[in-house]
Design brief:
There is one protein chain. The protein is mostly helical. The protein has one domain. The protein contains three helices and two strands. Helix 1 packs antiparallel against helix 3. The longest helix is centred in the C-terminal third of the chain and has 34 residues. It is elongated.
Length: about 120
Amino acid sequence: MIRPIQDTTTDTLRSALRGLELRQQAIAHNVANVETPGFRAQQVSFEDTLRSALRNGEDTSGIEPTVSSSASPTRLNGNNVSLDSEILLQDETKLRVQLIVQAMNAKYALMRSAITGN
């Protein structure tokens, strides 16, 4: 993949967006299977790995989110999807995506200003 702009901030924001995109997909999959017997909710994690890489000065561009099955208690049918929790997580994820997009837009606006002098 060609990355025209490569720096720690941009790489970190891109990694976070990849993780949040995968989380949105997992939430949709969980909600679609809320009544499927034996279905285990999927969880996506990437924040701790991303935070650790930043703290240690490591490259954040290659950080991949991990998907795992939730270990939360199940209902009698073996399903452990909580619709309330999924909707809250979906709203939180949307807000995080908006925040990251705003940060990227601000970074690109600064670069545009530096290039054009405006």
